[in-house]
């Protein structure tokens, strides 16, 4: 569960820790060197001072005085003549000092130089400064015990160790907190998607950040909402289908039972059988339309566009529907300039128009007229179907494209409607990337307008 935070944390820790170790090492080297350089140059300066005094007042007393001064301090002095014979020394000459005195140095600069700087393994660091008076020539050697320097570096090491441990500790804590903060939304999303995969779509994810992680959280939430919506929609749809199928089946069952009775006259029996035929027709329509919808829902559904004349197509359709309009006592008019062509799937286009015309016919009273009007403006073709029927109450308008939605259920059923017509229209319009608009006034009429844009 928390593996990702451990991974990220360890990775960052290794990186930052390595960086800190390098930096600490460099800093340590720098400080240690500058400390040692300081000591060495102080020793050179001290030797030079003795040399200056010697050159100014060269006598026994001065020599003794210099030796005495060094006895009191933590450095030692050895003064030799040119041949290397010791004139005076503030400390006992042991073999380590002797071996340093034996080092022959040529071309000595007047201001002296360091002859031993190995503080790590040697017992002394040492410098030399030449002196020259009218009487004598020789060298002033300065020695400093390295144990003090070693102590100093040891102390420095200890400080660095403490600082290093403290830094590593603080780094670890900061990284721990940071990696938790970074991975918490990831873990939450993981849990949420697990729930999704188990079919629990009612998840609630919060996203406070507006970075990529925040966007991911939002996308997952959107996905969950969408899935939840689809689930309820599917359940409702299935419930509606079974309800819609049950009604005609109840009729068929009931009327067939009645038609089986012995004492019925032929006419009565026929009327019952007629009802059964009618209900079967309705069921066939319902199943056909459901099949169409299922096909439209399927992603493999494609429309085969052709370039054809809108007017010719519309005229053919109205010719076909004219008898039913006549029967209903409704006039059907087509207003269409000849030269308008459209890129569309002709079969689907017909399906759209027929559905809308059938609605206009079904929901209009006798003596009214229905008009199909086509207009082209720039890159836009508008096809409107206007009727003078009973209209759709404004409360219902937002829902009429939903499956099985009918304003007047019993009236629609009586007319053979299934409540699927407009949802099929909507799917077909969407498949063409067109738009459909409705405007309606109760008892005045309804206008459906299809707006086709772009590639016409
Ligand atoms: N031209 C119209 N005039 C009045 N009401 C309409 C019109 N077109 C659709 N409707 C309303 O919208 C509902 C849904 O239409 P539709 O999806 O075609 O289903 P139906 O099978 O009932 O015709 C209809 O039941 C009807 O109440
Ligand atoms: Mg209809």
Structural write-up:
- The protein is α+β, with helices and mostly antiparallel strands and 456 residues long.
- It has three domains: 3-152, Beta-Lactamase, CATH 3.30.450; 212-297, Signal transduction histidine kinase, dimerisation/phosphotransfer (DHp) domain (Helix Hairpins); 306-453, Heat Shock Protein 90 (2-Layer Sandwich).
- 57% of the residues lie in helices and 17% in strands.
- The protein contains ten helices and twelve strands.
- It has helices spanning 3-56, 60-72, 95-101, 146-197, 212-259, 266-297, 310-328, 346-362, 409-414, 421-431; strands at 75-81, 86-89, 113-116, 124-132, 137-145, 306-309, 331-335, 341-344, 369-377, 380-387, 435-441, 445-453.
- The strands form three sheets. A five-stranded antiparallel β-sheet has the order 2-1-5-4-3, with helices on both faces. Strands 7-9-10-12-11 form a five-stranded mixed β-sheet, with helices on one face. It has a two-stranded antiparallel ribbon with strand order 6-8.
- A hairpin with a 7-residue loop joins strand 3 (113-116) and strand 4 (124-132).
- Helix 4 (146-197) runs parallel beside helix 5, helix 6 runs parallel beside helix 10 and helix 8 (346-362) packs antiparallel against helix 10.
- The longest helix has 54 residues, at 3-56.
- It is rod-shaped.
- The protein starts with a helix and ends with a strand.
- The mean pLDDT is 90.
- The structure holds adenosine-5'-diphosphate (ADP) and magnesium ion (MG).
- Adenosine-5'-diphosphate (ADP) is lined by residues 359-360, 363, 387, 389-392, 400, 405-408, 412, 417-422, 446.
């Amino acid at each position: 569960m928390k593996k990702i935070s451990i991974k990220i944390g360890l990775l960052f820790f290794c990186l930052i820790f390595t960086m800190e170790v390098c930096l600490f090492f460099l800093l340590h080297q720098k400080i240690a060197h500058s400390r040692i350089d300081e000591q060495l140059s102080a020793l050179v300066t001290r030797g030079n001072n003795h040399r200056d005094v010697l050159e100014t007042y060269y006598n026994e007393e001065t020599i003794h005085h210099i030796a005495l001064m060094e006895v009191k301090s933590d450095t030692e002095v050895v003064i030799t003549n040119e041949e290397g014979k010791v004139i005076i020394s503030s400390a006992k000459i042991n073999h380590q000092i002797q071996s340093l005195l034996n080092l022959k140095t040529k071309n000595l600069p007047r201001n002296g130089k360091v002859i031993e700087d190995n503080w790590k393994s040697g017992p002394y660091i040492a410098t030399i400064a030449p002196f020259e008076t009218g009487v004598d020539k020789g060298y002033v050697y300065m020695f400093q015990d390295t144990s003090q320097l070693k102590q100093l570096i040891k102390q420095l090491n200890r400080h660095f160790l403490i600082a290093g441990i403290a830094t590593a500790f603080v780094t670890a804590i900061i990284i721990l907190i940071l990696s938790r903060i970074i991975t918490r939304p990831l873990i939450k999303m993981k849990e949420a998607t697990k729930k999704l995969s188990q079919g629990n779509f009612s998840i609630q994810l919060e996203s406070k950040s507006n970075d990529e992680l925040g966007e991911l959280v939002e996308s997952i939430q959107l996905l969950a909402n969408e899935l939840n919506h689809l689930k309820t929609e599917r359940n409702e749809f299935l419930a509606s289908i079974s309800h819609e199928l049950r009604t005609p089946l109840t009729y068929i069952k009931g009327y067939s039972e009645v038609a089986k009775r012995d004492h019925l006259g032929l006419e009565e029996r026929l009327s019952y059988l007629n009802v059964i035929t009618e209900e079967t027709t309705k069921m066939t329509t319902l199943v056909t339309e459901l099949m169409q919808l299922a096909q439209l829902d399927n992603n493999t559904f494609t429309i085969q566009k052709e370039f054809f004349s809108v007017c010719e197509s519309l005229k053919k359709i109205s010719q076909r529907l004219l008898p039913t309009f006549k029967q209903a006592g409704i006039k059907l008019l087509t207003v269409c300039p000849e030269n308008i062509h459209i890129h569309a799937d002709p079969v689907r286009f017909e399906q759209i128009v027929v559905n809308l015309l059938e609605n206009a016919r079904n929901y209009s009273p006798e003596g009214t007229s229905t008009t199909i009007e086509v207009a082209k403006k720039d890159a836009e073709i508008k096809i409107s179907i206007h009727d003078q029927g009973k209209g759709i109450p404004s409360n219902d308008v937002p829902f009429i494209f939903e499956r099985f939605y009918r304003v007047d259920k019993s009236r629609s059923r009586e007319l053979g409607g299934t409540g699927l017509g407009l949802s099929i229209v909507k799917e077909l319009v969407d498949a063409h990337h067109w738009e459909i608009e409705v405007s309606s006034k109760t008892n005045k009429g309804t206008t459906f307008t299809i707006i086709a844009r772009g590639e016409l």
